[in-house]
Every structure is written in C-alpha cells, then in structure tokens.
C-alpha cells in the first residue's frame, strides 16, 4: 500500500484551497494576495511528483480512497482556471494551471488503466507474459 493517507489528505487540502481561490476570484472585491496562487500551484506540482513516485505501488484499494478526491481536485482546478481567465492579472498562471490539470488527468487515467484495469485483463497479462519470454538479443539490428 502506498502512502495513501498522506496523498488523500494532500489532495483534500489542495481541493479546498483551489475552491477557496476560485471563490475569491469570482468575488467582485477580489484582490490577489501576493504569492497565494503560486503557492497553490507549487503544492499541485508536489502532489503530481508524489503521485508519479508512488505510481508503481498504487493499488485499487489506494485509488478507491483518493481517486474521487483527485477527480474533484481536477474539476476544481479546471473551474479555477476558467474563472481566472477573466482576470488579466492572473493570465501568467493560466498556462501553468493548464499543464498541471493535464498532468493530473493523465495520472488519473494511467492509474485507472495500468494499475487497476490492466491486472484484471487476463488477455493482456498473457500477452505480457509472452513478451517477457522473448529473447530480444536474437532480433536483427
């Protein structure tokens, strides 16, 4: 089991913070606090790094715990980015947010595909076993 509880708490905390930023941006009285959005984006980067590092050990049980929160975080970040597009002072952050959203979506997809669904696919497992038995040194160069 990977560091599921730590990842889950991290995702939950980021979800709340990104929702809070979204509410502030939507407010007509919005005044960006210096460094608040960059701190959030740095934490999203750290979460992505942790998920990349833990990828080989994530189980279906782990994903059941943090998967729904991860999808909520992704949708909240999408909404935050959409809301921030109307604020010209937040334009420098939009490309970074777009990339982070794409990275988290790809991680979510890869976890579901390769860590959860692939081990259940008997045909794929048989094919992988055949491929692992091939002697690639005998292939022409």
Question: What would your notes on this structure say?
Answer:
- With 141 residues, this protein is mainly alpha-helical.
- Helix content is 74%, strand content 0%.
- The chain has helices at residues 4-26, 36-54, 60-84, 91-117, 122-132.
- Helix 2 runs parallel beside helix 4 (91-117) and helix 3 (60-84) runs antiparallel to helix 4.
- The protein is elongated.
- The termini are far apart.
- 19% of the residues are buried.
Total strand segments: 0
Structural class by helix and strand composition: mainly alpha
* Count of discrete alpha- or pi-helical segments spanning 4 or more residues: 5
**Cα-atom radius of gyration:** 19 Å
Instruction: Return residue spans where pLDDT drops below 50 for at least 5 consecutive residues.
Output: none
> How helical, in percent, are the residues?
over 70%
Mean pLDDT: 81
The percentage of residues in β strands lies in under 5%
Terminal Cα span: 41 Å
Largest sheet: none
Net shape: elongated
Compressed to H and E, one letter per element, the order equals: HHHHH
Task: Give the SSE layout.
Elements: H1 4-26, H2 36-54, H3 60-84, H4 91-117, H5 122-132
Summary?
By secondary structure, this protein is mainly α.
Task: List its salient traits.
5 helices, 0% strand, single chain, elongated, mainly alpha, 141 residues
